[in-house]
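dumping these here so i dont lose them again. two proteins, back to back, each one seq then structure tokens. dont judge the mess
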Amino acid sequence: MQALHPISQRLSRVLLCVLASFFCANALAQALPPPVLMALNRAQVPADAIALLVVEAGGRTMPRLSHRADQPMNPASVMKLVTTTAALDLLGPAYTWRTPVWVDGPVVNGVLQGNVIIQGQGDPKLVLEKLWLLLRRLQGLGIHTIAGDIVLDNRAFDVPATDPAEFDGEPLRPYNAAADALLINFKSVVMTFVPDVLTSSARVQFDPPLWGVQLQPSVPLSQGKSASNRGCGDYRANLKADFSEPTRIRFHGSYPASCGEKVWPIAYFEPASYNARVIEGLWRNMGGQLSGSVRSGTAPGGPATFEVASPTLAEVIRDVNKFSNNVMAQQLFLTLGLPSSQTPSSPASAREAVRQWWQRRISATDVPTIDNGSGLSRHNRISAQQLGQLLQVAYAAPYMPELMSSLPLVGVDGTLKRSKASSASAHLKTGSLKEVTALAGYVHGASGKRYVLVAMINHPNAAAVRPALDALIDWAVMDNQRQ
């Protein structure tokens, strides 16, 4: 065999070194940090059930960690990152929703000779206080009595009727409330229990007031510990609440005195009548009179008498991401389906709007499977690599500060307030479903560098991996040490 020329031998050695360096670096990137691996072993979660990615934000370097990063996974509520990033890019941080109101008749001696029409346009935060201000504006126009009807127009969203118990069998959980173009107070009722030892009862306050619903004003007070024998325990079970009738809320049990004041929010069990009951209940509670009824209808085409504006998108996504508000995320998702046509937005049009945005801004060919915008789905699929691309694009965008500040700050607020990782070391969105735990966002390294971090676990023991995720955050932070 002919010997290689000396120069060729040197080039071969250089090439071998380069290849060896590449494969070594790739092998290192695939290796799980020992603290993470130990925590996963304790949780009995195998390495083939997780996907991890840690890469410098804004950089073109190889990932510090990449494990099954190209595998599509269920991200749970981390899918809200797709929804909120698309919204910031398409609508802008200063975007607001408008709820127009029409008064269609003259006001004579405090009586409106006509109807009031309220049109929903998707405001995700039309809460009780905002509705009070809306009705207060009507009173400011001199209206004390409405001789006609209050007409509600929610046609901007075309949302199929669903069973609120379909996803997880918890129909009274507020997060299972369906989206609505006229979403008032998240379709929820907040019950506040205040014990009064002198009367041996607990007062019950219901917000908002519901017209036509009998509300039990108090429940008997039970002394000592609750049935669970652990301090306050499960006070909700002790109350033996009865929500079987839409026109009555009753309690057949008692309230433990050891619980102090407690707040229990529930989704109203007849959502179709919720808006009408709340608006009439609050209007009458404010001293107003209504001769007609609250009914569905169509808004007129002319200019509104006045409008009520929502908080800005930048403010709204803080609630969506920090507290993982599913209903607000769905409202935002459906809003993205509105600009594409004059027809109402539907889940299908929203999915198509986000898909087209992804192809323009992230990747024309590598598109995740998007079922809905909140992550409350068993069908959403996205890889750690795709989430990493999304976060890199957002990091280079003008709206990066708004997105980052909307994410929970580790050990400080939101869904990461109780995290045991290095406090204030990262802004990360959490996700949790049965057999799913996920985390994605930005980590602030000790060296001053910033990293994109993505972690997804799809496994029956996924709920036990929190210590492993805390260890991953700490490992990513300590980038000034040999790893």
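---- next one ----
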Amino acid sequence: MQIDILTLFPELFTTHFETSILKRARDAGLLNVSVHNIRDYAQGKHRVTDEPPYGGGGGMVLKPEPIFDAVQAIIGLNSDSNQARNQFPIILLTPQGRLFNQSIAQELATENRLILICGRYEGVDERVRQQLATDEISIGDYVLTGGELAALIVTDAVARLQKGALGAEGAAEADSHADGLLEGPHYTRPETFRGMQVPDVLRSGHAVKIRQWRREQALRRTWQRRPELLLNANLDEEDKQFLMILAEESIHGM
């Protein structure tokens, strides 16, 4: 997968892409990330990338020309933005976008290429959204100083879904939210720590019982912390029966 990131601050990305899973994915050829400085595509002696908004108001707005020119240069087009929009997702990272989640990460992970545009200052000229971006994504209901952190989050979430990125086969499928549930608890050595023991079932070596225990713990944790997720989770009959047990426990515990 190829991910291109457009930003005014490319130095913010260097360290993250040279560590851990993202570095391994890049070294293995599963992922290539290119960071492009929007200022390199601005015109004039001073390469101005932002201007005050029409109609007044505080802050500065990113100009459309360098962003359009950057995208068109990256994918080898001249001036046809519609052609660019038809090739692969061009995502504007903005608080006004659809809220990023694991389902969207899985959706984007199937693409061969993504372009991520990092907003800054007061925002981006509306014509970028209208005529260039094919999607708008937000990472939460709050405002950051720019879209760089959002681009890192999207890249990280999508990269780890690339086949082979995590090493262990099927590892991504067991993560929280991968199947609509929160992940259950994990334990490792020592067996006893400050009087707290690893559950017997995890030391039993019984694969079926361990699998059942982990599923039930995921259901329990989701029920306790994010019950709204259960409305859209992929549940079988055993799951539903266990949820009925949890419901009875909740009633009797009141």
